[in-house]
Amino acid sequence: LFRLRKLCMFCDVKPSVCNSSGICTSRCNITSICAGDDEICAAAWRRDGENVTVETVCHPPSEPFHGVMPDNYNATECVMKQYRHLGPDVYICFCIEDECNDQLVFTPRTSSEPPSPPMALLVLVPFVVLALVLVSFMYVCKVYTLRPSKLKCNSGQERSVLIGQLGRSDSISNHLNHNTELLPIQLDGIVGKGRFSQVFRARLGQRMGENEAFQMVAVKIFHLEEFLSWKGEREIFLDAELHHENVLHFLTAEERPAERQYWIITAYHQRGNLRDYLRAHRVNWASLCRMGGDVARGVAHLHGDRTETGGVKAAMAHRDLKSDNVLVKDDLSCCICDFGLSVRLDSDMSKDELANQGQVGTVRYMAPEVLESRLNLENIESFKQADVYSMALVLWEITSRCTAAGDVWEYEPPFGKLDHPCIESMKDTVIRDRERPEIHSSWRTHPGVAAVCEMMVECWDQDPEARLTAHCVTERFDELVRSSFICDSEKKLNTD
Ligand code: ADE
Predict the structure, then answer these.
(1) In CATH, what number does 185-267 get?
(2) Whole-structure pTM over 0.70, yes or no?
């Protein structure tokens, strides 16, 4: 029988912007499989003058951590505590759930005496009851109107399920961050080809005594001469706090000198990319909302400068959004992948450097201002606006395969009449003729699909400033899901 080892954030000591209040994320991008069978997760927050650091590790519970014997470490949350001998500028926590040391829960220090229990109860009970009713109502609405009940909608859960699956059959210790030793990976077939790399399905294996087991992962392989592309993508994953259920989950990056290769190892999604999925499947209204909403949520997460829990992250632009760069997960949710052309929008790249790589992406999906090389490089919003244009074309692709509004044709890419278009023919189509993918009149007969069409139109506006933000699109999808457009017959996600 496999004994499950803990998965903990493991960044050792890292500078942090946490102050010692509320709930703060570790901003550690590295999940590690703990070395010892019984190890737990631990974190320490320390302030030294202006400098704040957060340390995240796996830790054996029988040993002291900074002179503190782990106590109460069966906790599912990492509740930060102060210890007299460490002084006021150190907080420590222990916990036992996978990755529980990612969220540092600082116990708020109340300045006034707490109200007496009966009084507190009197005040709190009505609020608690109201909150419970509200939460249950929202839960029932969300689960029973759109998703089959077995789907998890909480992003935190989703993430630990994904890594949890990896950990479940995995006995290798701390490779995911301290990767001086390479992961025991056996490449299977090729599943994708990029500009500078190839993606393989692979088995991440391990030996546990007599037993062997493996977990599927995806390995993106760059050859020696593509070092800069590997480095760029690796840095995007490492720097930008990309953990999100709608962004491909990164496991680690490795140098493989023996093979003269560089690898990026991520979660593997057997359904493959959205374009292939749409070619082979039609989607119903619930799936359109789910997939469209997921794409928008993924893009909004990249564009934003906050994590879901309110931490700080680098805003990024993807710059190559297309249905090939969206993966379909087992539960038909979607995540964005391929950050090979992505840029951090807070980077100190000069205008010239940006200009040099101004016209990147896939021609078919390029926004008019990118086709014309007229992106306003002074303004980071321009990069997001160009992404939103490309995202609109992906929304159109999903909608074009939706059964909710009548007849559905074979899958065609946006501007499908153009075969391998070059920049000039795309410019003629998108700028000179102001063409956009066709919205069939039947699509507008379904009020929900009509609203999605309205969103697309607002996202592919010729004027970049007039486009919706990805965040706004997520809100509109949320609203659509909440609203009454969902008929009984369409409550289930489909696998048509
Ligand atoms: N194609 C590219 N990346 C992939 C992944 N992570 N899983 C499945 N197919 C892919």
Answers:
(1) 3.30.200.20
(2) no
